[in-house]
């Protein structure tokens, strides 16, 4: 008899420590059964982020349909009264049984999972149902089916799309509830920490560290002790609260980090999928330091010592550089020409539509400092052409 895994609950935390990224481990169908004993398999690995169709499951035997349906519940931590199901999922490395069957509620499932569970239930009924815990039950049919799905399983469950984000624009708009309910518990946790990751937060969690270290846009350099909420703008703060509230409403304590996990069910929404969101965000891409006057004016407070030695023109440019990072479209031809020459600049927002609420505390303070210095030096400020 397989022993039930120890249930260790730990809140989804944000703490220091960069860890190495998992090495890739692509596998083929011929090696899948052996792999299952080491890490585990999934029948429908994308059930939390896509809607499966009838044709995707119509060739499944009744046992596989039953297991695929319960796999959705298992991914959300449900424990099973059926010895057959419980033993099967305990063989899967991603399974973390934390919720007794009698306490599990379907509202833990996101919209994709609910729809897919309903589809599988209907298909199981069409096939006459599957009775678990038979006298001589076996998993052979399940593994045989999975081994036959070569194309579906020639992937690395720890692979992360390096260019994507769950919500690439969470720094410039308020997320809607209709978006949050589509996410799994794991995705809610990741989407919240994604906001901190964009600001260079480092993570003690191996799971989060490995995930974000695979992102090209991530550079972890700030420990939690040094990280300040002042670096977050009004959209980011609100979205963190919304994501946290939704996560905690699903289960007390939220998503449990660093248990048995994979990344194959995390939605990857590339910038291109959002109409080239990298440009629409109006945020600075990586660029040489020489392309900025103050490359970190959005993450620290500038001082008078920083401004000493700058010409009036450069002080004006430094102030407007903060606007430029946020996609501000300038009316001045001089500023258009200057920022147009920078590889990181993407003008996306007209002055009439721009709101200062997008600035974080550092940016607001630095704008005031630069403006006061400029007009304190010359009451007319720098004269743009």
Commentary on this structure:
The chain is mostly helical and 385 residues long. The protein has three domains: 37-147, Methane Monooxygenase Hydroxylase, Chain G, domain 1 (Up-down Bundle); 164-280, Methane Monooxygenase Hydroxylase, Chain G, domain 1, CATH 1.20.58; 289-377, Methane Monooxygenase Hydroxylase, Chain G, domain 1. Helix content is 39%, strand content 1%. The chain is built from 16 helices and two strands. It has helices spanning 32-38, 54-57, 62-75, 83-90, 111-126, 140-148, 150-153, 177-180, 185-198, 206-213, 234-250, 277-280, 304-307, 312-325, 333-340, 361-377, and strands spanning 164-165, 269-270. A two-stranded antiparallel ribbon has the order 1-2. Helix 3 runs antiparallel to helix 5 and helix 9 (185-198) packs antiparallel against helix 11. The relative contact order is 0.13. The model is unreliable at 1-39, 150-154 and 270-289 (pLDDT under 50).
Task: Tell me the layout of helices and strands.
Blueprint: H1 32-38, H2 54-57, H3 62-75, H4 83-90, H5 111-126, H6 140-148, H7 150-153, E1 164-165, H8 177-180, H9 185-198, H10 206-213, H11 234-250, E2 269-270, H12 277-280, H13 304-307, H14 312-325, H15 333-340, H16 361-377
Antiparallel strand pairs: 1-2
Short description:
By secondary structure, the chain is an all-alpha fold.
